[in-house]
Design goal:
By secondary structure, the chain is an alpha+beta fold. The chain has one domain: Alpha-Beta Plaits (2-Layer Sandwich), CATH 3.30.70.100. The chain is built from three helices and four strands; from the N terminus they run H-E-H-E-E-H-E. Strands 2-3-1-4 form a four-stranded antiparallel β-sheet, covered by helices on one side. Strand 2 and strand 3 form a beta hairpin.
Length: 108
């Protein structure tokens, strides 16, 4: 009985650890609205900065709704990414590019 109970306890702990690791490995879609991105070089600077965030590999730029803005779509490993995180990763480039908004996209 004790061996069975120990085995069940081990399986329960292993499944919780596995589920937690799987959640951390999920990619979370985000869309940022950024001003100041006016050319290919600007896109390269923003891309290089945002790729410093965990799990960010590919960014997609599109013209924003407001004049002078771009929407930047990307996936990140963090479920709690904030606008301030993007501003921080821009570093000195934050003088040129302003993160106006960040939204976590609805997952299907």
């Amino acid at each position: 009985m004790m061996k069975t109970l120990a085995a069940l306890s081990f399986l329960l702990v292993a499944s919780v650890i596995s589920a937690t690791a799987a959640d951390e490995g999920k990619s979370v879609p985000y869309t940022a609205t950024v001003s100041g991105v006016v050319c290919g070089s600007c896109k390269a600077h923003v891309t290089e900065a945002f790729k410093k965030l965990p799990g960010v590999e590919t960014l997609k730029f599109a013209k924003g709704e407001k004049e002078g803005t771009q929407t930047v779509s990307f996936n990140a490993a963090s479920t709690s990414l904030a606008k301030e995180d993007l501003e921080k990763t821009l570093g000195e480039d934050a003088k040129h590019y302003k993160v106006l908004a960040l939204e976590k996209d609805a997952t299907p």
